[in-house]
Write a structure and sequence with these properties.
It contains 23 helices and nine strands. It starts with a helix and ends with a strand. The protein has helices at about 1-5, 10-35, 55-70, 75-95, 100-115, 125-145, 155-170, 175-195, 205-220, 230-240, 245-260, 270-275, 280-305, 310-330, 340-345, 350-355, 360-385, 390-415, 425-450, 460-485, 505-515, 550-555, 570-585; strands at about 35, 50, 495-500, 520-530, 535-540, 540-545, 560-565, 585-590, 600. The strands form two sheets. Strands 5-6-4-3-7-8-9 form a seven-stranded mixed beta sheet, sandwiched between helices. The radius of gyration is 29 Å and the shape is flat. About 65% of the residues lie in helices and about 5% in strands. Strand 5 and strand 6 (about 540-545) form a beta hairpin. By secondary structure, it is an alpha/beta fold. The longest helix is centred in the last third of the chain and has 28 residues, at about 460-485.
Length: about 600
């Protein structure tokens, strides 16, 4: 038994079983006593749901901790502070205390950790590190609270974060802390049995505040005794482990402030809600955020092992990708009745930012400057091991500003900043290649003139050009990829249309219809006279054979309009199509890529 007790999988399994039992019991008592959350306009759930699931998570975690986990002074402090926050959250669930009172309680909990010597040793200045630690604990505690907005989201993301944290404990040889994390993971997984969509119980503030504090406090256990002294291990790893709640909280807080809403006010404007507004199911949205949390967790493990400079580049790419997603989701309307538009219109700051976002050139320039830096550094690092500790590092630092300016000027010269990312094509990729080639040639010439190429290698500039080209192409294509992965904002159900002509013109019409949902035309397929195109797919839509089947297709698919994409259609064929459409009472239009989508024939 002693051997099993030190096995993290056994500890997690016991906690999971105990959590299932406790959650079942708490749900039964909550329903019987009337402790249920009723649907509200600013809340997501649609039916009364049992509350106080946080009690089960607390009991399972605490029970297994004291029964199976060897206690240390530091872990006892974290557990004690988390227990205090649990009681504070439970009081809020029962009598609804004020936000400032909860904040005071959170500050007391953070103070307990700091007074016990648990803090983030980030700057070396005691008072600064204390305030950073307090901000970290309070911020993560509230982030988990805000993330608890959809079935299974907060518990699942927290379980993934705790799993990433457990792997870090294991890699650092922190056995006792690993067992604590295992107990915590088991408690969350057991609760998820009842909390995943469709949820039959919610955790409440008692659960979210307990979870948030325990996660943020457990991160500090990695810093005890100077175990993690690198800047990456101290800051980047915990931030990545808890990236999803941090991202969601920052995203919601910024947008609410710009809209003139209170950041603490409940609402349906979180990342998860916007994914659902795009047409994803609740489960799919939650699972997508689970995937993002897993990616961030894996990244946390990687950056703690590949050194600080390589880590910064990897983290930078990840943050840029998340910035793209944030910009895309910020445009999604989540409130009915035009409330989003009213809020935007009344806020001058938001209006200014929106207007600037349409001229994204400043962002593009800064992004390219970052990509140029990463590519140039990576070229040196790949060809020369530990070059930061050699004279090559000095050459890198001296030439970096010069190369950034030359390459940005080359991009401007060839027209890199003239295109729109959403329409990036093969022609744009050729333009990027020209810009990279011109920038690399100009950089080599400048280094030759100024430094006589002493200490430099042509291999570095060749590798730099390849990496930069891939980075620039990838950044531009990433936006199109996001638009493909995340569906466009759905409009009201539109008229079903069939596109006549499964060629280049038809494909262009389809893209325009998808890019302009305000036209309220819903493409359901193509129809073409060429039998070789029958049953093929174009962007997921089927091509039907036009020979004698147009009438039946219109009837079966409830087609309201047929859009002709073929420019030169024989008069007799056009007449035959018109006769079929008239008989089927279907409108016939010739589609053009203009401001107006179609012209009636």
């Amino acid at each position: 038994m002693q051997g099993l007790a030190s096995n993290p999988f056994f500890v997690g399994a016991v906690a999971a079983v105990l959590s299932v039992i406790c959650t079942y019991a708490v749900r039964a008592v909550a329903v019987k006593q009337g402790f249920v959350a009723k649907p509200k306009s600013d809340r997501w759930h649609k039916r009364p749901t049992a509350m106080h699931g946080g009690i089960a998570i607390f009991l399972a975690t605490i029970g297994v901790y004291f029964a199976l986990v060897p206690a240390t002074r530091e872990s006892l402090v974290v557990i004690g502070g988390a227990g205090f926050l649990f009681l504070l959250g439970l009081i809020d669930d029962l009598i609804s205390i004020r936000p400032y009172q909860k904040l005071i309680g959170q500050l007391i909990g953070a103070g307990i950790l700091v007074l016990s010597g648990l803090k983030l040793p980030l700057t070396g200045f005691e008072i600064v590190d204390i305030w950073i630690t307090v901000f970290w604990v309070v911020g993560i505690t509230n982030a988990i609270n805000l993330l608890d907005n959809m079935d299974g989201l907060a518990a699942g993301i927290s379980a993934i974060a705790a799993f990433s944290l457990a792997l870090n404990f294991a890699s650092n040889g922190l056995t006792n802390e690993l067992l604590l994390a295992s107990a915590f993971i088991g408690a969350l997984v057991g609760f998820l049995v009842f909390n995943f969509n469709p949820a039959s119980i919610f955790m409440g503030d008692s659960g979210s505040m307990f979870i948030g504090f325990l996660l943020s406090g457990s991160v500090l256990l990695n810093q005890v005794g100077g175990r993690s002294r690198g800047i990456v291990a101290i800051l980047a790893v915990p931030v990545l482990i808890l990236f999803v709640p941090i991202f969601d909280t920052t995203f919601v807080t910024v947008l609410r402030k710009l809209w003139g809403r209170k950041a603490s006010q409940g609402g349906r404007d979180h990342t998860s809600h916007r994914l659902v507004a795009l047409g994803l199911s609740e489960r799919t949205a939650v699972l997508m955020l689970y995937g993002l949390a897993l990616v961030a967790g894996v990244l946390a493990l990687l950056v703690s092992r590949i050194g600080p400079f390589g880590s910064f580049g990897l983290i930078g790419v990840f943050v840029v990708a998340l910035a793209f997603i944030g910009v895309y989701l910020s445009k999604v309307k989540v409130y009915e009745g035009g409330e989003d538009d009213v809020a935007m219109g009344e806020n001058a700051v938001f209006t200014f930012l929106v207007n600037v976002s349409h001229k994204r050139r400043i962002f593009e320039v800064f992004l390219d400057a970052f990509l140029i830096t990463v590519a140039y550094y990576s070229a040196w690092a790949l060809l020369y091991r530990d070059f930061e500790e050699s004279t090559s590092w000095v050459l890198f630092l001296q030439t970096l500003p010069l190369l950034v300016l030359i390459k940005l000027a080359a991009f401007l010269t060839v027209g890199v900043y003239r295109g729109l990312w959403r329409y990036t094509s093969i022609g744009d990729l050729i333009t990027f290649a020209k810009g990279v080639a011109l920038g690399s040639a100009g950089s080599m010439l400048a280094v030759l003139v100024i430094y006589r190429f002493e200490g430099f290698s042509r291999k570095v500039f060749f590798m730099d050009a390849v990496l930069l080209l891939l980075a620039v192409m990838g950044s531009r294509m990433a936006f199109r990829l996001i638009r493909q992965v995340l569906p466009a904002t759905p409009s009201q159900p539109g008229r079903k249309v069939l596109i006549y002509g499964a060629g280049d013109g038809g494909e262009m019409i389809l893209r325009e219809l998808k890019n302009n949902p305000e036209w309220q035309l819903q493409p359901v397929g193509f129809i073409d006279d060429d039998p070789l195109k029958r049953d093929k797919l174009i962007h997921g839509l089927k091509v039907y054979d036009a020979n004698g089947t147009l009438r039946s297709i219109c009837k079966d698919k409830e087609i309201a309009e047929v859009l002709i994409s073929v420019r030169h259609l024989p008069a007799d064929r056009l007449k035959a199509i018109r006769d079929v459409c008239d008989e089927a009472e279907v409108a016939l239009r010739r589609a053009h890529i203009t401001i107006e989508p179609v012209d009636i024939i």
